[in-house]
Amino acid sequence: MRRCLWLLIFLGGIGSAQAAPPKTVLVLGDSLSAAHNIPVESGWVNLLDARLGKMVPKWTAINASISGETSLSGRNRLPGLLRKYRPSVLILELGANDGLRGLPLPALRENLATMIKVAQHAKVRVLLIGIELPVNYGPQYRDGLRAIYVDLARTLHTSLVPFLLDGIALDPALMQDDGLHPVASAEEKVLNNVWEPLRPLLD
Dihedrals φ, ψ of 123, to 5°? Predict the structure, then answer.
């Protein structure tokens, strides 16, 4: 009888372990991550969630991205998001709207650095996602913006996607008419740009 009781306890413990909730990847981004003007289920974050759900053990993606989000508004929202979702990994995709508005680069760098440090203080691994601006913004600003992401990844020891839309942005067939956002059929390519540097953070 006692042996059966211990067996039930043991099996119950295994069941509890198997039922453990999946770990979370939190995505904090702008319209590039918020499925702008395409079906939500086609967006790269939704595709990421589906891919994570097939892993063993399972992970899940929470999309906290908002169209129009800036680095400052993201900085203000991040502490609450970390408390609410308790992610293991943060994908930080912000800066495009700051760049399009011509925000001084030191201010953008400070906002991004603060978010990375806040996440790391909460023991959350960070994947930083860089962006590129149209060529009409001039080489000095574009090069400076690009350098921010590279420098932050190096100095704050985060993983990096240098450009979210690499291999996509210059192909008109993969971009919406605004020239800024991918079409639905290109979102799998966006996910592939993210997946390779993200995968080691899930181990």
Answer: 65, 40
The token duo for 106 is 């030191």
CB 197 within 8 A of CB 161: yes
**What pTM, to 2 d.p., does this model score?**
0.90
Of the residues 16, 143, 177, 178, only one is catalytic, namely 178
178 belongs to the catalytic site: yes
| Residues ≥6 apart with Cβ < 8 Å to 80 | none
Q: What is the pLDDT of residue 7?
A: 47
Catalytic option among 49, 65, 71, 181: 181
Nearest to 25 by CA among 80, 82, 67: 82
Contact between residue 33 and residue 44 where contact means Cβ atoms under 8 Å apart: yes
> What count of Cα atoms within 13 Å lies in the side-chain half-sphere of residue 71?
29
Active-site pick, 30, 31, 49, 65? 31
Q: Which residues of the chain have pLDDT under 50?
A: 5-11, 14-17
Residue 23: beta bridge partners? 59
